[in-house]
Design goal:
This protein has 101 residues and is mainly beta. It has a single domain (22-100), classed as Sandwich (Immunoglobulin-like). The chain contains no helices and ten strands. The chain has a four-stranded antiparallel beta sheet with strand order 3-4-8-7, with no helix packed on it. Strands 6-5-9-10 form a four-stranded antiparallel beta sheet, with no helix packed on it. A two-stranded antiparallel ribbon has the order 1-2. It is rod-shaped, with a radius of gyration of 21 Å.
Amino acid sequence: TCDTGDQQTTAAVRLKEPAATIVERLKDVTTHEGEDVVFECRLSRETAQDAQWFLGDVPLQSNEMNEIRVQGTRHSLILRKVTLEDCGSISFRVGQHSSAA
């Protein structure tokens, strides 16, 4: 705001958060039934954007079978004690970017 006493003008500053990109993509994993599997992605920056993991088309959430971790720019998914039903495509999406394994 600029105020001269009898006149005043005001302006605002707005910032747009730059979109995060995936700089380390998912890698395929082969394991044995009953073991835990870890998938990791690294982003270009820490982000408040919604990041989401999927098994096929099903969105995953942290529970007793899936653990989702975020440590800075590193996003991890741990599938506990996998079974044959867990075989398939794992994908990670953030903004307009995605990676699959």
